[in-house]
Write a structure and sequence with these properties.
257 residues; mainly alpha; 11 helices; globular; transmembrane helix; transmembrane; TM_pro_TauE-like; transport
C-alpha cells in the first residue's frame, strides 16, 4: 500500500488533515454530510484510494462520539429497513474498488452526490410538507429506502461518501434534527465498523495508515464538542440547507480534482 506515513507529510499537509479530522467530529454531531469536505482534503493530501483507508478509523471515532451524544433519538425501524440494502451496496462497492482507479472513483462519487442533491432539491420544491419517518413503511417508502440503501452502501465503501446519500434520504423521509442525527449516528457506526474487514482485505488499512490515524484522531474530539454546541443554535431550515450545500461542495470538489 502506498499510504504516506506521518514522516512523509509536510507541516501544512498535516495541518490540513487535522482540520479535516476536526470537521469529521463536527459533521457527526451537527451537519451530517459536511465530512465530504474532509474526504476531499484527505484525497488531496494522500493517494485517493489509500485516503479512504486512513479516513475510515477517524470516521468511526466520530461515529462513537455521535452515538454517545444522540443515542436516545435513533429511529430503529428505519435502520433495520436500510441495512440489507446497504450490505448489498458495500459488496458492489468492494468489487468496484478491485478494478477502479483514483480518477474513476472520484468522478463516480462526485457525480452521484450532485445527482442526489439535485433530486432532493427537486423533491422538496414539489412537496409542501415532508412525510413523517414512519412513512417509510409504505411501498413507495420501502422502494426509496432500498434504493438509497444500495447507493449509500456503494458510496460509503468506495470513498467513505455515504454520509451525503443517507443525509438526503433522511431529509426526504421527514426526520427532524435530533432524530436525523441519532439515526445517522447508529447507522454509520454499524456500517463503518462492518467495512473494516473489506478495507483491510483490499490493503487500504495497515500499520502505517493506523499510525497516521493515531496522530489525527485526537482532533475529532474538539470537532464533536463544537458540533454539539452548534446544533442547538441552528434552526431546522438552515440545518437542511447546510446538509444539501455540503453535499454539493463535496461533489464538485471530487469532480474538479
Amino acid at each position: 500500500m502506498n499510504t504516506m506515513t506521518l514522516w512523509h507529510i509536510s507541516g501544512w499537509e498535516f495541518a490540513a488533515l487535522a482540520f479535516a479530522a476536526l470537521l469529521v467530529g463536527f459533521s457527526k454531531t451537527a451537519v451530517s454530510g459536511a465530512n465530504t469536505v474532509s474526504l476531499a482534503v484527505f484525497a488531496a493530501v494522500l493517494p485517493a484510494r489509500a485516503s479512504t483507508g486512513v479516513l475510515l478509523p477517524i470516521l468511526i471515532a466520530g461515529d462513537v462520539l455521535a452515538v454517545l451524544t444522540y443515542r436516545r433519538h435513533a429511529h430503529w425501524p428505519t435502520l433495520w429497513r436500510l441495512f440489507p440494502a446497504v450490505a448489498a451496496g458495500v459488496v458492489v462497492g468492494t468489487l468496484f474498488l478491485v478494478w477502479a482507479d483514483d480518477a474513476v472513483v472520484r468522478t463516480s462519487i462526485g457525480a452521484i452526490l450532485l445527482l442526489m442533491a439535485g433530486v432532493t432539491m427537486w423533491r422538496r420544491r414539489r412537496a409542501g410538507t415532508e412525510d413523517e419517518p414512519d412513512a417509510v413503511t409504505s411501498r413507495a417508502g420501502r422502494i426509496k429506502a432500498r434504493s438509497y440503501g444500495v447507493l449509500g452502501g456503494f458510496t460509503t465503501m468506495v470513498a467513505n461518501a455515504g454520509g451525503p446519500v443517507m443525509s438526503l434520504y433522511l431529509l426526504s423521509a421527514g426526520f427532524r434534527k435530533l432524530g436525523f442525527l441519532g439515526t445517522s449516528a447508529f447507522f454509520f457506526l454499524i456500517v463503518n465498523v462492518s467495512k473494516v474487514p473489506f478495507s483491510a482485505g483490499l490493503g487500504l488499512i495497515d500499520g502505517r495508515s493506523l499510525l497516521l490515524d493515531a496522530a489525527l484522531v485526537i482532533f475529532v474530539v474538539p470537532g464533536a464538542f463544537l458540533g454539539k454546541w452548534a446544533v442547538n443554535r441552528i434552526n431546522q431550515r438552515l440545518f437542511e440547507q447546510l446538509v444539501i450545500a455540503a453535499t454539493v461542495v463535496g461533489g464538485v470538489q471530487l469532480l474538479l480534482r
